[in-house]
Description:
Blueprint: E1 2-6, H1 16-29, E2 36-43, H2 45-56, E3 64-72, E4 79-87, H3 88-98, H4 102-117, H5 125-141
Parallel strand pairs: 1-2, 2-4
Antiparallel strand pairs: 3-4
Amino acid sequence: MxxxxxxxxxxxxxxxxxxxxxxxxxxxxxxxxxxxxxxxIITDNDLLQELNREYxxxxxxxxxxxxxxxxxxxxxxxxxxxDIIISYQKANEQAVTAGHEIQSELSLLIIHGVLHLLxxxxxxxxxxxxMWKIQDQILSDMGLNLVSPKY
Length: 151
């Protein structure tokens, strides 16, 4: 099950069922364990800055963070993969800069977060290339005319 929580006011143009579909597709693309649960939390810059500072030592907001839980939920028996936390403000800024809709940017960030939860990273050029390739393939398969940003 994919749980989506929107914790910011004045959010527009978000289709939770689409975001759930994007997360499910990304999970299935990478063939994870059956009965995988995860949470997606769409929140504000303040929380992302706080988490970024606490866990990565960077005192600035970021667009998305993933926290791998990697355990069996005792209530459901499902594998709980983890949490993806997204800053709506950063996502909106990035969507405007890139010239696409917020829904598309959120989709990109969800795919990115799922890949992190599944163990992928982009901290070196050698690890970035395969992650971006998979990310771009999922975006293409989902009909999103986007490419991974080249940070």
